[in-house]
């Protein structure tokens, strides 16, 4: 099996670049049909979603916009501690059809925070497309419209996903072994 070592940890090939490409094509086709006349705005959550975003958008052939956001941690004043604030969105999304692009939904806490903050800006609709979902880890009740792959609860790297900042450049997805 093809293996890579990142930060002294060994990962085995899990999803090939070709499988990723095929799955992304299916999602792009569905988006092209569904949003043909509605000029959606894609909102990509950096850093992890950069490669998914790039490959998906090359297959999207309808009029659309693309924006990138990041979740910035800061110490909140609430007892719950760290609060994550969505930064980087300059576009007015009022009454727009928003499509969020994520690398991975694990517990769902991150995507829930993104959805909650975007909802305050009154978009017409919010659609979620994620490259990966770990269904066994979900703690939040979220409807995810497009999932390229549902995967078991094992740490993965590659294709935008990282271990301590490394491995994002890999064109396949690898699983910790
Ligand atoms: P939650 O639990 O909020 O997690 O849904 C989403 C964020 O956690 C990171 N994450 C991973 N990153 N391999 C990674 O490289 C993984 O297997 C993994 N699981 C969770 C990721 O930053 C994601 O946005
Ligand atoms: Mg992420």
Key features?
177 residues, alpha/beta, Rossmann fold, four-stranded antiparallel sheet, 3 helices, 10 strands, 35% strand, globular, binds magnesium ion
Describe what this molecule looks like in 3D.
By secondary structure, the chain is of the alpha/beta class. It has a single domain (17-72, 82-156), classed as Rossmann fold (3-Layer(aba) Sandwich), CATH 3.40.50.2020. The chain is 22% helix and 35% strand. It is built from 3 helices and 10 strands, in the order ββαβαβββαββββ. The chain has helices at residues 17-34, 50-59, 109-119; strands spanning 3-6, 9-15, 41-45, 65-75, 82-87, 97-105, 125-133, 146-150, 156-157, 173-176. The strands form 2 sheets. It has a 6-stranded mixed sheet, with helices on both faces. A 4-stranded antiparallel sheet has the order 1-2-10-9. β3, α2 (50-59) and β4 (65-75) form a beta-alpha-beta unit. α1 (17-34) packs across α2 (50-59). The longest helix is centred in the N-terminal third of the chain and has 18 residues, at 17-34. It starts with a strand and ends with a strand. The structure holds xanthosine-5'-monophosphate (XMP) and magnesium ion (MG).
Tell me which CATH architecture applies here.
Answer: 3-Layer(aba) Sandwich
**Radius of gyration, CA atoms, in whole angstroms:** 16 Å
Strand percentage lies at 35-45%
Adjacency order of strands in the biggest sheet: 5-4-3-6-7-8
Task: Tell me how many strands there are.
Answer: 10
Attached small molecules: xanthosine-5'-monophosphate, magnesium ion
Number of folding domains?
1
The global form is globular
Mean pLDDT: 94
CATH topology heading? Rossmann fold
The percentage helix is 10-25%
Largest sheet: 6 strands, mixed
| Class computed from helices, strands and strand pairing | alpha/beta
